[in-house]
Amino acid sequence: MNLISGIDVTAGALNAQKVRLDIVAQNIANAETTRTPEGGPYQRQVVSFETELVKQLPGEAGQTALQTVKVGGISSDTTPGQQVYNPQHPDAGPDGMVTMPNVNLAFEMVDLITASRAYEANLSVVKNARQMAEKALEIGK
Amino acid sequence: MTPIGTINPLSASPLTRLEPSMSPSEISSPGLLGGAASTTSTTAPTDSFGAMLDGLVGGVAAKQSAAAAQTNAVLMGDTGQLHQSVIAMQESQVAFSLMVEVRNKLVESYQELMRMQV
To answer: Which of A97, A126, B52, B109 sits between 20 and 30 A of B95, alpha carbons compared?
Structure first.
């Protein structure tokens, strides 16, 4: 019984945007991190999305297959971080230079806004799909 | 949910339960209902209307328990998927409204029959 059509697609998209938001939060939180378990400064993480076929119920074979989205992978941005002269820093090299993470706060804020707007857009889809189902139930009232 | 339109309510089991002295074969016999019964017998549904209603109520209950389980998981901190739980709640709400709507139609048609002049 799938009363609200396309809701699985939107749920996948909401999930993907939430993961993206989490990764942005992680990048902003680690904007000054110069030590990681792998050694070296923190590297900015980037989320990539990929499509995924929604599982079809046998009764709905006539419908076209819908594609939802899922997080394809989280990869590291390998651009080198900025070198800052700070001899007092514990992670400073012999020449007094510290390699900072390659996190650019302006980029992260843009990503944050894009992710939250995309989340909102998907929530509107949920809201409208629900309203359509409720309007259909009002037929004959 | 399309079978609602195709099922003749007169051949449905809820009415036989209301009138136990009458067997379903008597109700659907051509002598009682004329041509209407003969058309329904050719397109007789495999499940009775009552079984379909049972399935509907079961589906609504399953949706509600799924929504409760997801909300519980969010509240207990097992998952951060708040939207999934809210969507499940919305889905169960729509399913419940559909069930109420079907019940209203059923009661309405029963009352319509009771108002019939004999």
So the answer is: B109
Nearest Cβ partner of A4 from B80, B84, B94?
Answer: B94
User: A45 burial class (0-12, 13-18, 19+ CB within 10 angstroms)?
Assistant: middle
Long-range Cβ contact pairs of A1-6 (< 8 A, separation 24 or more): A1/B1, A1/B56, A1/B59, A1/B63, A1/B95, A2/A57, A2/A60, A3/A133, A3/B91, A3/B94, A3/B95, A3/B98, A4/A126, A4/A129, A4/A130, A4/A133, A4/B90, A4/B91, A4/B94, A5/A129, A6/A66, A6/A125, A6/A129
* Residues of chain B with C-beta less than 8 angstroms from the C-beta of A14: 83-84
**Which chain A residues contact residue B56 at CB under 8 A?**
1
Show pLDDT as tens, one digit a residue, over chain A (141 residues): 677 777 888 999 999 999 999 999 999 999 999 989 988 899 999 999 998 887 665 555 556 678 889 999 999 998 998 899 999 999 888 999 999 999 999 999 999 999 999 999 999 999 999 999 889 988 877
Interface pTM, i.e. ipTM: 0.73
CB atoms under 10 Å from CB of A62, counted, come to 5
pTM of the complete model beyond 0.80: no
Nearest to B87 among A7, A18, A137 (CB): A7
